[in-house]
Specification:
- Helix content is 88%, strand content 0%.
- It contains two helices and no strands.
- It is elongated.
Amino acid sequence: MRSILYIIGVLLVIGWILGVFVWNAPHLIYILLILAIVSFLLGVIKKGEL
């Protein structure tokens, strides 16, 4: 489950970077950034529970 969260987080960060430099969609960029941060935090929290 953790690896899936990390993959999702990485994909969201890549989407955020593409949004910043390629597309001009500011609201989508911030939503992707927040989702990536939440995904990484969930992975760290779940890793600490083991």
